Each structure stands twice: as structure tokens, then as C-alpha cells.
Automatic annotation (TrEMBL):
It is an enzyme of class 2 (transferase). This is Acetate kinase. GO terms for biological process: acetate metabolic process; acetyl-CoA biosynthetic process. Keywords: ATP-binding, Cytoplasm, Kinase, Magnesium, Metal-binding, Nucleotide-binding, Transferase. GO terms for molecular function: acetate kinase activity; ATP binding; magnesium ion binding. The active site is at 146 (proton donor/acceptor). Catalyzes the formation of acetyl phosphate from acetate and ATP. Can also catalyze the reverse reaction. Homodimer. Coiled coil: none annotated. The lineage of its organism: Bacteria, Pseudomonadati, Pseudomonadota, Alphaproteobacteria, Rhodobacterales. GO terms for cellular component: cytosol. Pathway: Metabolic intermediate biosynthesis; acetyl-CoA biosynthesis; acetyl-CoA from acetate: step 1/2. ATP binds at residues 16, 204-208, 280-282, 325-329.
Length: 394
């Protein structure tokens, strides 16, 4: 029997998963159950080389059934394996969790209390954990948090200028995408230790987007705050917004909080700015309509602004790392951001950028610009492996 570790990332109607061996960075298999609870639910499953594996038709009603479907298919594809641990991506660890944690009923009820802080994500993440605990009562379940990496923020980057009791009640700038930032930090420490020990801004630019100021490996500031709405515009999320707009929509336009949440999370960002054309950067780049061009212009401009703020939070910048679907693949967006960062001492090498090279700044550039594909799943599986190693040692 080969020992394996499963990682789960449960969303509102999806369950992403990956199966890893006891060592190695590449998953043995990965995939996703999509549209859970709907008529068109589907399962995709790929092996480590990215080849599609055969799967049966499915119709799961909830995460428990979706997980059962995943397990059935994994058992068929990998019959001689034994599950040693399950790692979960959890969006919110509040102020308590700065590290991954072994989940038991006490932890679960603490995490439940954080659901009001992330109502669109946390309950689904926890549904995934409950489903896994039910299916494998004896297997360790390790929760890894998107907020954990940012627990090192100084108070000024943790607080809002609101009455103090709100801070005590948890209204703080938590920051998200922490698993991605942790991965990039580890990669820098391994391959570019001098840069890792300096002042780095990581731009995680995907359908969700944020930036993080990382000084000597520790998060100092992030563009995301209390929720995953703040900061940069995203595929469908608005990014930074004057709270006066919300008051106006509530009081003058008579919008309900549900309708506002739907607009801010699902109909804004690149999708909203492009007049409903698309949330997908590839489509916008190819389209060329005036609205698509403006959406891209806004995206780049907000990154340029926030990059200045992130650098200022550290008293300067020595490295800029791009990751996420847009950061890793869009030469156009990277070039436009870097061109506007010349004043900070960054000189892009366009040939390197066009080749998607790891370093895309010139040899004489004072700031090193890099492209590093992120891997949040690997951070989760490493946390699960660390737990197993600790268990074996005791
Ligand atoms: P993610 O959420 O990290 O998977 O990133 C998704 C985003 O990356 C979408 O907006 C995609 O359009 C964008 N993306 C992926 N590949 C490319 C590409 N070659 N050029 C531009 N954008 C891309």
C-alpha cells in the first residue's frame, strides 16, 4: 500500500481536490467536482501529467456526496493506496490561527464562528471538512488558512480607523491569498535568498487578485483587508471602494444587502467594467472593444497605485513577483505594469517577458522582476506531511 494525502478546496458549488504521494511536489491526480447540487454536475480528473482520466456520470447533491464521488473515482484509479491525511484550504483563520491546525470538534466550532466574516466561502470550506471527517473519522484533517500568512502585520496595517471596539470584535484587515504568498516566499528563499531577505511585492493576479508586501519573508501589508473584496479589481469583484457608495446604494437606490453583495462579488471588477463582456483577461485582451480596453486600463492603474503603497509600507522595493493566471501568463499586463514601475528602479527586459522567463527584468535593473507559478496545493500538502512527520516523531 502506498500512503497518500488528499487536499480539498471546497467552494459554494465546487470541490477541487488533489492526491499526492508521501513525498514529491507533483500530484498523482487532481480535479474538480463542479456545479454540486445542480443538474449539470460534472467531475474532471487528471493524472499527474495532466492527462484526463475516465470518470462516471455524477449527480451529487452536497459536498458529502461530491467527496464520495471523488473517493470512488480515486480508489478506482489508484487501488493500492491508503489515505494518511487530508489537507483543507480554509479561507479564514481569524486572529487565532497563524499556522495550519489539526481539526477537531473544538477547532471546527471556532472556525464556524468565523463564518460571518466570510459568508461566501467559510461555510463551504467547513462543509468540506465535515464531509471528510465523516468519511474518514480516524484520518488527520489539517486546515490551512488564507489569512494565516498575514498575521505578522503591524497594527497600523491590521486596524481600520473605526471605533476601537469594532477592532476587538474582529473588524480588521486580515488579508487573503496567504497560501500563495507562503509558496512564493518559500520558492524565493530556496532559489533567490538575497531577494527573499529583502523587500518584495508579490502580485497574485488571477480571477481573484491581491498584492502583498513581504519584508524578509514576513507579510507587512496586503491589498486585501476585512474581506476578499478589497484592493485590486478582480474578475468579478470590485476591489477598493468608497464605503459611501454602499451607503448610497442602501439608502438612495433601495438595494438590499444581498443585492449589493451579489453586485460586489459577482458582477463588478473586469466583468462590470467591460460592460458585462467578460471576467476573463484573455477574452478582454483579444476583444479590443473600448470597454474591454478601459477594464484593462483600470486593472493596470490600480495595480500601479497599490504597488506604490506596498513599496511605501516597506520603505522601498527590491523584488516584484508575478503569479496567478494573469501574472504567470499575460505578457501584456506584466509589461504594462513594469513600464509604469520604472520610476521605482525596475527596468523590464521585453524579450525575457515575452518568453515568460523566470526573471523578466534587465541585468541592470535595480528591482528584480520575476514570474513564479504559484502552487497553493503544495503548501497544503506540505502542512499535512509536516503533521504526519511530527506524529511519527512522538
Ligand atoms: P486564476 O484564477 O489564477 O486561474 O487566473 C485566471 C485568470 O488568468 C483569467 O482572467 C484568465 O484569463 C487569465 N489568464 C490565463 N492565461 C492567460 C493568458 N495567456 N493571457 C492572459 N490572461 C490569462
Amino acid at each position: 500500500m502506498i500512503g497518500v494525502i488528499l487536499t480539498l478546496n471546497a467552494g459554494s458549488s465546487s470541490l477541487k481536490f488533489a492526491l499526492y504521494g508521501e513525498d514529491g511536489d507533483t500530484p498523482l491526480a487532481q480535479g474538480m467536482v463542479d456545479r454540486i447540487g445542480g443538474n449539470e454536475a460534472s467531475l474532471s480528473l487528471k493524472d499527474g501529467a495532466g492527462n484526463a482520466l475516465p470518470v462516471a456520470d455524477i449527480s451529487p447533491n452536497d459536498h458529502t456526496q461530491a467527496l464520495a464521488v471523488v473517493l470512488d473515482n480515486l480508489r478506482q484509479a489508484f487501488p493500492d493506496t491508503e489515505l494518511r491525511a487530508i489537507g483543507h484550504r480554509v479561507v479564514h483563520g481569524g486572529t487565532d490561527y497563524a499556522q495550519p491546525v489539526l481539526v477537531d470538534q473544538t477547532v471546527l466550532s471556532k472556525l464556524d464562528k468565523l463564518s460571518p466574516f466570510a459568508p461566501l466561502h467559510q461555510p463551504h470550506n467547513l462543509a468540506g471538512i465535515r464531509a471528510a471527517m465523516e468519511a474518514f473519522p480516524g484520518v488527520p484533517q489539517i486546515a490551512c488558512f488564507d489569512t494565516a500568512f498575514h498575521r505578522t502585520h503591524p497594527w497600523v496595517n491590521d486596524a481600520f480607523a473605526l471605533p476601537r471596539d469594532l477592532y476587538d470584535r474582529g473588524v480588521r484587515r486580515y488579508g487573503f491569498h496567504g497560501l500563495s504568498y507562503e509558496y512564493i516566499t518559500g520558492e524565493l528563499q530556496a532559489s533567490a535568498p538575497l531577494i527573499a531577505a529583502s523587500r518584495v511585492v508579490v502580485a497574485h493576479l488571477g480571477n481573484g487578485a491581491s498584492m502583498c508586501a513581504i519584508q524578509n519573508g514576513r507579510s507587512v501589508a496586503s491589498t486585501m483587508g476585512f474581506s476578499a473584496l478589497d484592493g485590486l479589481p478582480m474578475g468579478t469583484r470590485c476591489g477598493q471602494l468608497d464605503p459611501g457608495v454602499l451607503l448610497y446604494l442602501l439608502d438612495q437606490e433601495g438595494m438590499s444587502s444581498d443585492a449589493i453583495a451579489d453586485m460586489l462579488y459577482r458582477r463588478s471588477g473586469l466583468l462590470g467594467l467591460s460592460g458585462g463582456l467578460s471576467n476573463d483577461m484573455r477574452t478582454l485582451e483579444q476583444s479590443g472593444t473600448p470597454e474591454a480596453r478601459q477594464a484593462i486600463e483600470y486593472f493596470v492603474f490600480r495595480i500601479q497605485r497599490e504597488l506604490g503603497a506596498m513599496a511605501a509600507a516597506m520603505g522601498g522595493i527590491d523584488g516584484l513577483v508575478f503569479c496567478g493566471g494573469i501574472g504567470e501568463n499575460s505578457r501584456l499586463i506584466r509589461a504594462r505594469i513594469c513600464e509604469r514601475t520604472e520610476w521605482m528602479g525596475l527596468e523590464i527586459d521585453h524579450a525575457r517577458n515575452d518568453e515568460n522567463a523566470r526573471i523578466i527584468s534587465s541585468d541592470i535593473s535595480r528591482v528584480t522582476a520575476m514570474v513564479i507559478p504559484t502552487d497553493e496545493g503544495l503548501v497544503i500538502v506540505r502542512a499535512a506531511r509536516a503533521h504526519l512527520a511530527q506524529e511519527n516523531a512522538t
